[in-house]
Design a protein that fits this description.
This protein is an alpha/beta fold and 213 residues long. The N and C termini lie far apart (51 Å).
Length: 213
């Protein structure tokens, strides 16, 4: 199987997890990390899951549970039931992950590293979770909190850069210059942002260069 890499916004979206054990717990933690509205359905639910801000229904899965779902995770210890859940979700065009049953999955959970809105993710297509975990540990040394701050700052200046500069080429040049300055600040362990005047100077210099051509 070849999965297309795609990031989906699930913030405040209903995500259903069928299953109440330790595997379900891991999926709860991931989905909450990205702001999902998580619903857990299972006859038995471990106490740790109930400590999280999720909606829990301690009963058997019903097809009506799929209503309004953005995605579904079948995480029971019954392979046959997971298959039934996956089929029901697919019939309703809902992305579904059946844990350890690759043939029943329309999406998979990658190993990922996250700092604020900056996310790096790895997938082996289900072939080697051990390898993706190794890559995750390596990436965690590179994708630092400071890079998360840099990403947030770059996002915050987009309206100003877009308003001040007319072409994508000019904007890209300013973003690159800003990023270079942010890298210097990270090396010096300074605040990861520019002053308003520093940003304006970079914008003005770019305008002058463009007019001089």
């Amino acid at each position: 199987m070849a999965y297309f890499p795609m990031f989906v916004d699930i913030k405040k979206k209903k995500c259903l997890i069928v299953g109440g054990g330790t595997v379900a717990l891991r999926k709860v933690q991931v989905l909450l990390d990205f702001g999902a509205d998580v619903v857990v359905v299972a006859p038995e639910v471990i106490s740790k899951i109930k400590e999280y801000p999720v909606t829990v229904y301690q009963r058997n899965f019903e097809k009506e549970d799929l209503q309004g779902c953005e995605l579904v995770v079948a995480a029971t210890d019954d392979a046959g039931l997971n298959h039934e859940i996956a089929e029901a979700a697919q019939k309703q065009k809902i992305p579904v992950n059946a844990v350890d049953q690759q043939e029943d999955c329309s999406f998979i959970f990658p190993s990922y590293v996250r700092e604020q809105e900056l996310v790096g993710a790895f997938s082996s297509g289900g072939n080697s979770p051990v390898l993706t975990q190794c890559l995750k540990k390596y990436m965690a040394q590179i994708l630092t909190a400071e890079l998360g701050e840099a990403n947030a700052y770059l996002g915050s200046i987009r309206p100003v850069v877009k308003r001040e500069l007319d072409t994508e080429t000019m904007r890209k040049k300013v973003y690159q210059q800003v990023l270079n300055e942010l890298f210097k600040q990270i090396e010096k362990k300074q605040d990861v942002k520019l002053s308003r005047q520093q940003l304006q100077d970079l914008i003005d210099d770019t305008k002058k260069e463009e007019r001089g051509r």
